[in-house]
Amino acid sequence: MATVFLPTPLRRYANGQAKVQTEGGTLGEILANLDAAYPGLKERVFDENGEIKRFIQVFVNDEDVRGLQGTETPVGPRDEVSIVPAMAGGC
Questions:
Q1: Which fold has domain 2-85?
Q2: Which pTM does this prediction carry?
Q3: Residue 49 three-state SS
């Protein structure tokens, strides 16, 4: 099972958990399984076109999936997925 790290705003949809485990062979399957287990996550990560929202970064083993294969990025049982909302602000 892959481990998924959730940012604070999404933890309320996962019973307050900072990390959860789920199965799936691709990032898309992982995120779909997460939404099935914890309804409400998908609409906060994906836009209306089914793409990862531009202000959300998703990493598989510290690599941004936008530089990989997006939701088709392969995910193995020991991989780690991190969902990170973009930070705004300045000095």
A1: Ubiquitin-like (UB roll) (3.10.20)
A2: 0.89
A3: coil
